[in-house]
Design goal:
Elements lengths: L7 H13 L4 H8 L3 H13 L4 H6 L2 H9 L14 H7 L7 H11 L6 H14 L13 E6 L5 E3 L6 E3 L1 E7 L5 E6 L4 H15 L5 E4 L6 E3 L6 E2 L1 H10 L2 E2 L11 H18 L7 H17 L1 E2 L4 E2 H9 L15 E6 L5 E4 L2 E4 L8 E6 L3 E6 L2 E7 L7 E2 L7 H7 L3 H11 L1 H13 L7 H14 L1 H14 L4 H10 L30
Length: 513
């Protein structure tokens, strides 16, 4: 509260006792029934005005007041009233104080109110405003976001059913510039996408974003240390801003957006109630039209529109948007298998083989799969929706696996053919017997390498025996060579089955007809 100004009579007496009588501050204070501080301020003001006791004696009370406090209003007239709405707007600019605004006021109105009364009048004006107006929001400081309680709807073209949709609302703190759009849900993907479009609408990034503690923004509600949803936190990092959730059960933390939601419900949702829209695209096109009307309307309290206030006050205070748009990604935790792959939606993606058995974080977008281990990105793949297949980077494989990958069915058969036709025939049969030829590589390589130990001639003979009995494995060929069966002459004809003897216990095939 402003202190009441002393009368000129009392001021003159203070100066008389100080300058003419030479008394101390305390003695003057006791004599006149005022505080020591008032005595000190009065003497300081007179000294600053370059007064002496002789000049004070020569001045009447009106002239003395002008010297001490500046020119006041003429008798019967009122001092110029400050523009309180203008003061409230200007205070939102960085570095602007009431003292600076008062000096500018005096430059325009030298006979205006002094600083103490100026501040008191402004505070009285604030008290007459709604409680939500008491926060002073600096330009470019905060973007408040929330969903409206009253929801618009779209109509199913086939059934005629009215399907409610969500209305996302974002409001800049200083200018009240408002953005709104309809979304299918309040899920994280829709929530983050709405933020991206809101930032693009205002053309910049505020220092902070203030959401309510809904699940899409906060995974663990807490008054002091709320847990931010990971994708939302990632969005804030991408745009170089921060997230400051409103405290639970603290309406004043989000008063700006609550008023913005109320305005959006009145000027957007209410006007949509009798309109029919069959898609989100249609209803959002209409919301965009209504939004321009809303932001272009003159606010009664400030005498200007949200858009004009934004251009004048807030656009320059926002940080620039990054070069690339934020892309939403869903996060999962996965364990790397012994084959150094992780499974995402029935498709396998490779990571460096040294991470086998480790737990990793997987970020999934519509087009990419990124894999992180302890915060470092260790792999990135184009997303595939083909189930049961592998996406493998050669650099992720151990050296022995990379060498194995260099083989092809044609190369395998060509090598086998250099040994002999029987070996080539067995290799071909093995590859054709597998669902995928690669599944027979290891067996074929094992057979071909047996020629180094036993010689190509013996291997050719062993493969011939394997083909004759229908064997299709490395183990069979290896067993033949170990036992030396390849050296035995092959039977020229297959043994015939002996005719069973006649016996009363042998019924014959006619018995079963």
């Amino acid at each position: 509260m402003a202190s009441e100004r002393l009368s000129m009579r009392k001021i003159r007496e203070i100066l008389r006792q100080k300058w003419a009588l030479g008394r101390s501050h305390r003695e003057v204070a006791v004599s006149l029934g005022v505080s020591v501080g008032i005595v000190a301020k009065t003497v300081l003001r007179a000294t600053t005005a370059k007064l002496t006791w002789e000049s004070v004696v020569a001045l009447d009370e009106a002239a003395l007041e002008v010297r001490l406090y500046g020119r006041g209003a003429e008798p019967g007239s009122r001092r110029p009233e400050p523009d309180y709405a203008w003061i409230d707007i200007e205070r939102r600019k960085a570095g602007v104080t009431l003292e600076l605004l008062h000096l500018e006021y005096l430059e325009r109105h030298p006979d205006g109110y002094r600083y103490t009364q100026y501040c008191e009048l402004y505070r009285r004006w604030l008290k007459r405003q709604r409680l939500v107006m008491r926060h002073v929001h600096r330009a470019g400081e905060k973007l408040f976001t929330d969903y409206a309680g009253k929801r618009p709807h779209v109509v199913d073209r086939e059934t005629g059913e009215a399907i409610p949709v969500e209305l996302f609302v974002a409001v800049l703190g200083a200018s009240n510039l408002t953005y709104a759009e309809a979304t299918r849900t309040q899920r994280v993907a829709d929530w983050t996408a709405s933020h991206v479009r809101a930032l693009e609408y205002v053309g910049g990034v505020p220092a902070a974003m203030v959401p309510d503690q809904l699940k899409s923004a906060v995974v663990e509600a807490c008054r002091y240390e709320p847990g931010i949803q990971r994708a939302y936190e990632e969005l804030a990092a991408h745009y170089g801003t921060t997230i400051i959730p409103a405290r639970p059960a603290t309406p004043r933390d989000k008063a700006k957006v609550e008023v913005g939601v109320q305005v959006a419900e009145r000027w957007i949702v209410a006007r949509l109630r009798n309109e029919v829209h069959f898609s989100l695209e249609s209803i959002n096109a209409r919301i965009a039209e209504l939004l321009e009307e809303l932001n272009g309307r003159t606010m009664r309290r400030y005498g200007t529109s949200r858009r004009a206030l934004f251009e004048r006050l807030e656009r320059a205070a926002l940080r620039p948007l990054p070069a690339e748009r934020f892309v939403y990604g869903e996060w999962r935790i996965a364990k790397v298998g012994i084959d150094y792959h992780v499974e995402i939606d029935r498709h396998l993606y490779s990571v460096p083989f040294a991470l086998s058995g480790e737990r990793v974080d997987v970020r999934m977008t519509a087009t990419t799969i990124e894999i992180f281990h302890r915060g470092d990105r260790v792999a990135s793949h184009a997303r595939s929706h083909t189930r049961g297949r592998h996406t493998t980077v050669d650099a992720h494989m151990p050296e022995r696996h990379r060498q194995h990958l260099e083989w092809t069915p044609g190369r395998m058969i060509q090598w086998a053919g250099s040994i002999g036709p029987e070996t080539a025939g067995l290799v071909t049969a093995i590859l054709e017997s597998r669902r995928h030829p690669e599944q027979g590589y290891r067996s074929c390589l094992g057979i071909l390498r047996l020629g180094r130990h036993y010689g190509e001639a013996r291997l050719e003979a062993a493969c011939s025996r394997a083909l004759a009995v229908g064997a299709r494995s490395y183990r069979h060929v290896d067993s033949v060579l170990r036992a030396g069966l390849d050296r035995l002459p092959a039977a020229e004809t297959a043994p015939t089955t002996a005719t069973p003897p006649d016996h009363e216990n042998i019924r014959g095939r006619d018995y079963y007809h």
